[in-house]
Specification:
alpha/beta, about 220 residues
């Protein structure tokens, strides 16, 4: 079972004023299978995980020892335990997150963050997954969306099945009506300022074979 963190959706829903009954549901098994099939037909590898532990185990097998790894800021990755695992560096990975946070010079830290989108393995989550196979992400800074599009050598996206919606239009609405208000509430707590829907990406097809892997987790994860 996923770990509930300080900024899990359940702790921000009332403050954000969003509707989980509309945007945070577990779909039928047939819809999950159809979503996985459609993502696969768009050039991405799809793995199904029964729960958070299984998702974390898949990540351990997907990322070779010695790899340069960057994890985008993600409630999902925190809830499944990947953020803590990466921080411990016990798998022989080189954590770019740790390299960035260890740099005290603000300009150097910004440059390291910019280069981190080119990591060997960029681990991320999605804001919404369309049953038709598209994945959607929206950022304030673009640190995640830049890696998605081209920069990262390998892209691994972990998403709970609660993020599955019928169409791409619904996916974009989920971002606006559900994900953004929750992220805005989180940002106010963490940074003292709200978020902004600044830079978005729709991953509709992957032409580089083996570059992008999507792990769909049969749990309610992130937002």
């Amino acid at each position: 079972m996923a770990a509930v963190t300080q900024f899990s959706a359940v702790n921000l829903i009332a403050e954000a004023g969003v509707d989980p009954e509309k945007w945070d549901l577990i779909p039928a098994e047939s819809e999950i299978r159809t979503t996985a099939m459609n993502i696969g037909q768009r050039g991405m590898k799809v793995l199904l995980a029964d729960d958070s532990k299984a998702a974390l185990d898949l990540l351990k097998t997907l990322i070779p020892p010695g790899s340069e790894v960057m994890a985008g800021s993600s409630t999902t990755l925190s809830e499944i335990g990947f953020t803590d695992l990466l921080g411990r560096e016990e798998r022989g990975w080189r954590s770019l997150n740790k390299v960035i946070t260890s740099e005290n010079d603000e300009l150097k830290r910004a440059e390291l963050r910019r280069k981190s989108v080119c990591a060997d393995y960029f681990i991320s989550s999605a804001n919404a997954v369309a049953l038709t196979g598209e994945l959607v992400a929206w950022d304030a800074s673009g640190s995640r969306t830049g890696a998605w599009l081209f920069a990262a050598g390998h892209l691994v996206i972990v998403a709970g099945v609660n993020k599955i919606v019928p169409t791409l239009e619904d996916a974009l609405r989920r971002v606006r009506e559900y994900c953004f208000p929750l992220e805005n509430a989180r940002a106010l707590h963490v940074y003292g300022i709200g978020s902004i829907m600044s830079k978005g990406v729709i991953l509709a097809h992957e032409r580089l074979q083996g570059r992008t892997t999507v792990i769909l987790v049969h749990e309610r994860l992130g937002y």
